[in-house]
Amino acid sequence: MDVRLFLDREMSDGELHPFADGLVAVYSTRSPDKQTANEDAAVLIPFNDHAGVLAVADGLGGGRAGEQASRMALCELAASVEQADHDEASLRMAILNGIENANRAVAALGLGAGTTLAVAEIRGRTVRSYHVGDSMMLVVGQRGKIKLQTICHSPVGYAVESGLLDESEAMHHEDRHVVSNMVGAADMRIELGSSIELAWHDTLLLASDGLFDNLRIPEIVGCVRKGQLGKVSGRLAAACHRRMQGLEPGEPNKPDDLTFLAFRLAAPRRASAVRDVADCYVGVG
What we know:
This protein is an alpha+beta fold and 285 residues long.
C-alpha cells in the first residue's frame, strides 16, 4: 500500500481503505457554502503489513495559507516515516522527527500560518497518540466506554480538563476557536500518549475540530461505538452537517471544514478478507 494523501477534498461520501491489521474510513469536505479551499487534510502512511501512521491536520491562517500548512505538515510526516528503517523500534522516532520537520517547514513559509496535527501510531493491536493543537483523538469501545480522549491544546480545552468549564459551556464559549499550540510556532510542543491495546470492536477516531465543535462527545460515541465502519462514517458526517446547516435549533452550530479518520481492527477470522471488502466498497451509506 502506498501513502494516501487527502488534500482539499470535497467528499459527498466517505472512502474505506485496508490499513495495517484493519480498515479505515476517510471523510473530508470543506465547510458548507465556503468558496475557498478545504484547509483540512488527512493521510494514511503504511509502515509494514502490521503497522502504520494515520494523521489529520487542520490548517490555521485562512485560505491558501492554512491549506499549505496542513498539506506541508502531512507531507513532512509521510516523508520521515517512509525514510525510517523498517523495524518498528524506529517508527516512534520517525513520527517525532516528522512533526519537528513539519514545524520548521511551516514556520519557514513566513505566512503566519500554522496547523493542528493529530497522529495515531498503529502497531498490530496497539495505538499511541501524538498531537499538537485541538484536533482530537478518541478510542471508543463497543459498549461506549471511552478508552482514550486527547486534551485540546487551547484555553477552553484546559478549562474543561480542569473542571472549570463543563462540556456544554465549552461548546458555546466565545474563545473555543483559540488554539494555544500549533505546528509552525516557535514554541510548539508535541503531546505523546501512552500505548494502549485495541479490542476487536474498538473504534479509533481522529478528527478536526469541525466534528468536535458541532457534536458533543456522547453524541460522537453513540455514532461510532457499533455498526459497520462505513455506516459509522455516514452517521458522523450526516449528524455533523445537520448541525452546521442549522437544522437543529438550540444545538451547537459552527460551520467549518470537516475531516475524520475512523479505524478498526479486523477480527482474526476476517483479516484475510479485509482488502477484498474494502476494494469493492463504495460510499458510506
